[in-house]
Amino acid sequence: MKVLNADEMRRVERECAESGITTDMLMENAGKAVAGETRRILGSIENKQVILLIGPGNNGGDGLVAARHLHDWGAKISLFLLGKRDKDDNNLKLVLERGVACYDNLEGLGGLLFSADAGIDALFGTGKSRPLGDAFKQALEQVTETRKKRPGLKTIALDLPSGLDADSGACDPACLYADHTITLGFPKPGLYNSPGAGRAGFVTIVDIGIPEHLAEGVKTEIITDEWARPVLPRRPLEANKGSFGRVLVVAGSINYIGAAYLACSGAIRVGAGLVTLATAGSLQPILAAKLTEVTYLPLPESAPGVISAEAVNIVVPELKGYNVLLLGCGLGQSEQAVAFNRSILLQPKYRLPLLVIDADTINTLAKTPGWWRQITDDAILTPHPGEMARLTGMPVAEIQSNRVCITRDMASEWKKTIILKGANTVIAAPDGRCRVCPVANPGLASAGTGDVLAGAVAGLLAQGLNVFDAASLGVWLHARAGEIVKAELGDAGMIASDLLPVLPKTIKELKEK
Predict the structure, then answer these.
(1) Euclidean distance between CA atoms 450 and 256, whole angstroms
(2) 17, 311, 364, 493: least surrounded by Cβ within 10 Å?
């Protein structure tokens, strides 16, 4: 599903009008869809008390339509009209004809909130980028204060929480922490970027009658099950292990033995046919006790558990036998490991397999000016925000404030596919396409989960997916596995290895859904 910024939304709305789909038609569809989602959220709507904060523009108009439908379905509605509305506003007339309680000031809002089942923020949508004025600020602050005292009050934002920038996710201090955001037509990037993602709550996207073809030129989309299902690698009955690809993982060091285990296991668990671990020779017996399904390529050491730069002479002759090379998980930043990384990537006199570059190899690249000109083919890089900061020279805060644009720009400049990890992971391709994972799970913020992701991406790439799809599907399977573990264990105490047995279950569920 496409993700549209504010300008793109205005464009498709203009094109709707030009094709005969009027603003009034879209508003009616939007309001009814919001009412339907509100009814779903509350379970039953009969005699439920719902307060709507109505703004002066189209977002307020959508709220008036929602109020009319909720009233007709049996809810007790109170409207607070904040900002002037046209005297000929038909949606306002329709609610007034029904005797819906309407207030043009904030007197009584606090008392009504204490008995309400839900409060709906219909003040401003994608068009509001200025600081919130006094009345709007006071209304939202009253909702916030009541929510602290009455956790049972459901807070629902119409399209966007007011004060949340649709494009960047920047938030006015008065912006609600909504339980639910019902966004209209298409999701907006600010809903998946901090701090906006933390204010939006659970995001639902509702159809309001905008033809999908109007967004065909948009290059950003969110990942969904509907996208992922047909992308899953095929598993023909006559297959053998060679049918599902061969992955060479160069990983691990004395301080990061587990990274090698997790990366190899991630590749196996998404269906790679054969995984070989190339690691420091003294670590091989330790890992063999846990990783019984992989084969091994023991490497010479510069110190116990640390590979030597000369390991490149062992690895290079083996490369022709593999579809994918995963490089970096837990290799460490010793001088010898850095020299090995540079030798294998930056001075090649041979053809490299498809590359997945993670962790310590990313840090090596960050110390190498113009590295992307020396790796001429596409590759998948999997930086977390700190590693991305080292690669770009930008502060982490700047990267986090504009994750989609920065990831897309760097993918285009470096001619590489980038997975910017973190809440709402972003995947960008060199041609400008971008996908956003709509999942933010604090349970995945623990050591080793990135190694599982790198392995999963490598395993999918080995099975024949193109680079961008392998990166995107790996992120989605990893995120969905995290959600399954979170549902069972909670988001505290989840560890990386919890994801491994769930990855094949996630694939199975996707196929069967």
Answers:
(1) 13
(2) 493
Is residue 1 in a domain? no
Say whether 483 sits in a helix, a strand or coil.
helix
Question: How far apart, in whole angstroms, are the C-alpha atoms of residue 268 and residue 275?
Answer: 7
Whole-number Cα distances in Å, 430 to 167, 213, 232, 379, 415: 21, 24, 22, 10, 5
Q: Which of 371, 366, 357, 359 is nearest to 324 (CA)?
A: 357
Count CB atoms within 10 A of the CB of residue 179: 18
Q: Are residues 326 and 412 in the same domain?
A: yes
Asked whether the whole model's pTM tops 0.90, one would answer yes
Only one residue has tokens 């297959």, namely: 239
C-beta of residue 276 within 8 angstroms of C-beta of residue 302:
no
Find all residues with CB under 8 Å of 174, minimum gap 6, and list them: 132, 136, 137, 140, 141, 144, 163
The pLDDT tens digits for 55-66 are: 999 999 999 999
Q: Domain holding 341: CATH number?
A: 3.40.1190.20
| Residue 128 confidence (pLDDT) above 70 | no
Tell me which residue range forms the domain holding 364. 225-234+243-512
